[in-house]
Write a structure and sequence with these properties.
2 copies of one chain form a homodimer. By secondary structure, chain A is an alpha/beta fold. The first copy, chain A, is built from 21 helices and 12 strands. Chain A has an 8-stranded parallel barrel, surrounded by 5 helices. In chain A, helix 2 runs antiparallel to helix 11 and helix 14 crosses helix 15. The longest helix of chain A is centred in the middle third of the chain and has 15 residues. The N and C termini of chain A lie far apart (72 Å). The interface between A and B is large, with 50 and 50 residues.
Amino acid sequence: MSPRQIGVTEVALRDAHQSLMATRMAMEDMVGACEDIDNAGYWSVECWGGATFDACIRFLNEDPWKRLRTFRELMPNSRLQMLLRGQNLLGYRHYEDMVVDKFVEKSKENGMDVFRVFDALNDPRNLERAMSAVKQVGGHAQGTICYTTSPLHTVEGYIEQAGRLLNMGADSIALKDMAALLKPQPAYDIIRGIKDTYGEETQINVHCHSTTGVTMVTLLKAIEAGADVVDTAISSMSLGPGHNPTESFAEMLEGTGFETGLDMHRLINIRDHFKQVRPKYAEFESKTLVDTNIFLSQIPGGMLSNMEGQLRAQGAADRMDEVMLEVPVVRKDAGYPPLVTPSSQIVGTQAVFNVLMGRYKVLTAEFADLMLGYYGECIGERNPDLIRQAEAQARKEPITVRPADLLEPEWDQLRAEAESLPGFDGTDEDVLTNALFPGVAPGFFTTRDEGPKNVGKTQEQLAREKAVASGQANAVREPITYKITVGGRSQTVKVEPGE
Amino acid sequence: MSPRQIGVTEVALRDAHQSLMATRMAMEDMVGACEDIDNAGYWSVECWGGATFDACIRFLNEDPWKRLRTFRELMPNSRLQMLLRGQNLLGYRHYEDMVVDKFVEKSKENGMDVFRVFDALNDPRNLERAMSAVKQVGGHAQGTICYTTSPLHTVEGYIEQAGRLLNMGADSIALKDMAALLKPQPAYDIIRGIKDTYGEETQINVHCHSTTGVTMVTLLKAIEAGADVVDTAISSMSLGPGHNPTESFAEMLEGTGFETGLDMHRLINIRDHFKQVRPKYAEFESKTLVDTNIFLSQIPGGMLSNMEGQLRAQGAADRMDEVMLEVPVVRKDAGYPPLVTPSSQIVGTQAVFNVLMGRYKVLTAEFADLMLGYYGECIGERNPDLIRQAEAQARKEPITVRPADLLEPEWDQLRAEAESLPGFDGTDEDVLTNALFPGVAPGFFTTRDEGPKNVGKTQEQLAREKAVASGQANAVREPITYKITVGGRSQTVKVEPGE
């Protein structure tokens, strides 16, 4: 029997640098790898969406739409893939349906193929419009389950969630494990359950981070259960808070009855390319190689450092242990949302408030909105007392409808706003950019002509740092001019290494 | 059905720092973790042998026997484990049988429990005496298979090798994957084969490095096949050229029908301890997180950098590709030895010679010895033409007997040699120390009284480095005195940061 072919999605161009280096990689550091990526035999190439859009205009003075078109041009043979936050698109609020349609249409037009659509609360109503918009323009609509654990989250529940996504017309299901919580056996059970329930031909893509050190094993169990495609990152862009290494995944399958069909020589080229690039962004990297704390605390690393910062700002850094115990209480009261952006921040901040001021003495505006249903529905019931308290405090009704149903058509107004901005180029793409990041886009439009910035270090800077680190770090190595004042008399002195 | 209990050997105190930081960790950086290690529920604690003995006297001015006794005292509840190179003991030549007996006896007396005995060529005759010596003193004799791949290495061959070790009275079998070459499916097949052939009660320990990124999966497949004990390193001392993280291994088993029974709170203490320690030794660490090259080249990383150094020294750094192609030729001619110390150095150096001077124009003395059988037998036949050439060059007969059979009793002479050394303390332990490292022990004996050195950086040094790295690296931060000469007139100038 010939081995079953497992598809691989390469995430080096999106989630890998988002996870490892705060989404800072410049386009010029990616283009050199594209020909090899395009021809290595990947199922798809994740290269857009998530935080890359925001990072482009906020940090890199780069037009994200142009980035997409460049990828399209450089990788004509590949399925390009993006991560889309459902009704939030790539921003941080719900958008009215026509804006969702427009964004998807323009993304497809500029070159996108596979749309991985998710919602932080796993509320299907927050995915529906984006999914149907993708179908409308002929894209691949990938419905996503955000994996988390709680007393209410069960294998059966995830299988049912997959059914809801398939009912929306999902072309495939993504099991998304952003916190590296997905252990081998639950992965097996969920994936087998989906296949058993909806048919073997149901395509399942598995996305795991590597933070906890267990998920390479999860990937093998996932494909043993029938998973079709897995996400990995080329080894030189892998591990830590990132993903499992592509070459290792391919190699480990030997003799198992599975194979990737990836071209190992192309992979080596890609690896060598990013091996040169990664050190340029070292200042953005976390030091953590592996961390299993999340299994005990349920609190993702990013959320932890966030809460620590809030406590420090209040001079209460020593109360972290109390906050850690409060988080599960708040999460339960909110109906057990998965802890990802934005729910992780909302729950975490409320937990900090509870510890500092007394439990629920003050609700944050966001927590009140969460309790009132303005982010959507969670798996669990929300604490009814807190819903009443939120209602009183926020002077808003609790809602049960889809949050976006409350929005009025906004496209014309968004266009009018964009048109008033200096540097606006007249396109729908620019309207969308401003709609998504109204605080950042206007500035970007005025500086766009200066072209992209590279915030990584140059090879020369790296070489100099290395030289300094290897010697006596405090010694003067290049001429430096000091102004030295002695007894009221100033002199300018140039100091440089002697012979 | 209750989960099957999987034993874990913690390697943080031996192989982890040998692999990650060139065996440099000072005893004082380990003692603080011992109570937690002793009570975490490990099957055994690897803490001695391998390169630690050498490193103790060569770099740390520390008596390795005293280190063993300290571990014994600090971990009264644990099986202490060591790695022993068969007839080579911990040195780099064969020792006469009585020396082997003595070393094992003294190791047991000073506190050792589990002796993992291996030979680089997998020649059972090089293990026999050490194994029987361990049995003699009531230790746990663990017979070891060094895993490698070649056209001659088969699952069946490894199963047969296990049989030879069991015939020697092995209390358990170790499958030792020093190069992270062991993929999940071969691991499964070998281990299942051993259990099927020799009985389910045959204890199998699995030792994998993590270099290639595939071996966490290997560990799961190994225990699915019936493996009883696996080697891991606490997460803060894991990954890269080291081992898979202990906590991740424990966590990933949830729901699989296996469990470790390890105390997670103890593990967290151990982790936090070494999290503080590891940065002190950063200068000894390799930058490589994951590297799958070995699957293509069969050449372990350490061997590669060795050969590169040899080429550079000859001004032939550009001929590495030729050497890479030559290694498999030399390895085949030598009968496919596993490429570990010392065979990796012997094969690698000969490959470099072949490229620089023409194939086999010159044989190194060590390669000639290997061809003549003086290191033992390999799995494959050695090239008969080269055996004749080695015979002529080395003026030695090829041998087929066990190499140690050619040795005369040497204990009395070794004692006499030791007695002539200043600082010798009269014990058999000191005789053995000098016997193993005659080039290093005499110096160590004279400086022993000064006590152990710590070659790691202090927390203060680390803090200062961090401060320097975060600022303008070239600026003067502490007073530095320069001699400045202007127009022939020299002045001493002290420069320090202004206000």
